[in-house]
Amino acid sequence: MIIADRKPLKEILEMIQDCDRILLVGCKGCVTVCNVGGAKEVGILASALKIARKKDGRPLEVDERTLERQCDPEYVEQIKGVVNSYDAVVSMACGVGPQFLSAAYPNQRFFPAVNTTSFGGAVQHGMWEERCAGCGQCVIHYFGGMCPIARCSKSLLNGPCGGSAGGKCEISKDVDCIWDLIVRKKMEQGKLEDLMDVKPAKSWDTARDGGPRRSVREELVQ
Amino acid sequence: MRLSYPSNIKLIQVPCTGRVDILHILKAIEDGADGVYIAGCLEGECHFLTGNFKARRRVNYVKKLLEEMGIEPERVEMYNMSAGDGPRFVEIAKEMTEKIRELGPSPLNVKKAA
User: Fold this and answer.
1) What is the pLDDT of residues B81-99, one digit of tens each?
2) Are A11 and A112 in the same domain?
3) Is B112 in Cβ contact with A47 (below 8 Å)?
4) Is B23's CB within 8 Å of A44's CB?
5) Residue A79 domain boundaries
6) Given an 8 Å threshold on Cβ–Cβ distance, is A43 in contact with B23?
7) What is the nearest CA distance from A36 to chain B, expressed in angstroms?
8) How near does any CA of chain B get to the CA of A68, in Å?
9) B41, CA 20 to 30 Å: which among A30, A182, A202, B72?
């Protein structure tokens, strides 16, 4: 899923400083699962914004809505009747949400309340880690089911580098060296020779470097 | 025992402090409470095992949020006490009341000069 973190309250308050009435829109997709932008978090942020503004003597009216998804026009359409009655709209979805909203409602202003960080999963309750970099050409099967593109700080395909020490990456003691894990797993499986195959330089055409990407399912396009 | 505790305290009963949500605490502040404290069972003695630990984590979250808003985080506290120890309940009620009195009214209740 897409992982995000809430922006600092101060930053959100600055975005909406000229507003008296806003709509706070959550998303029931990825950001609900990573507990940053679902109905619950919308309620908490709405309350926090109201408290902060009341404290400053400029009360803020906040209406709350949580859409099924903000990355589908059919759900974005659900706020059609009310969206222009607010001074601004704050979205708690990933970076995709406020863009779909902005495209659908050109006369309204949309602010992001979260910073979208990565594609990943929950490694334990309350903690999410990056697992995929969306490079457009999946290669995890060569590396024991672990992605060196997303999980090696240098995205090395023929690692590890000299910065690997005690199973950790030199950037931080909290970051595993994925190449340490890959080599260990291959050793345990008795398949270390798989790694003797030198991987050539990766083509990044399918990644962001090739420009914005588009996926088409011709059987579905109308 | 017939002990009395400060009358400014409004009691809200929940089956376990594990039921206390971040939003419950925030709504109380939003509606003008000068302070909120959660009176949970002693640590390690929760009937549901971890209810009071969950409450403590939520209180800590609200404290951080209050700090972000520029409100004293001390207005929200977590206390642990035994359900069988009435005098301790009164003691904490007085302690919290005193603490909030020192902090003064919630900034939400202070009228701003026009």
Assistant:
1) 998 999 999 999 999 999 9
2) yes
3) no
4) yes
5) 2-117
6) yes
7) 14
8) 22
9) B72
A75 with A13, same domain?
Answer: yes
Residue B2 inside a domain? The answer is no
Q: Which of A36, A45, A51 to mutate to test the interface with B (most CBs of B within 10 A)?
A: A51
Q: How many CA atoms lie within 13 A of B46 on its CB side?
A: 19
Domain boundary among A117, A152, A179: A117
Residue A110 sits in a domain whose CATH number is 3.40.50.2300
Give SS3 for A128. Answer: strand
Q: Is the pLDDT of residue B114 over 70?
A: no
Residue B83 lies in a domain: yes
Average pLDDT, chain A: 97
Q: Are residues A14 and A55 in the same domain?
A: yes
Total domain count for chain B?
Answer: 1
B60 Cα to chain A: minimum distance (Å): 14
Domain assignment present for residue A125? The answer is no
**CB within 8 Å: A44 and B107:** no
**Position B6 in a domain:** no
For the stretch B60-73, pLDDT in tens is: 999 999 999 999 99
Give the pair of three-digit tokens for residue B11.
């009691």
Whether A6 and A80 share a structural domain: yes
Residue A192 in contact with partner chain B when CB distance is under 8 A = no
Is B94:B102 a contact under the CB 8 Å cutoff?
no
Q: If you write DSSP's letter for every residue of A76-117 in order, what string do you get?
A: HGGGTTTGGGSSEEEE-S-THHHHHHHHH-TTS-EEE-EEEE
Residue with tokens 């000299």: A162
| Segment A83-100 mean pLDDT | 98
By the 8 A CB rule, do A67 and A75 touch? yes
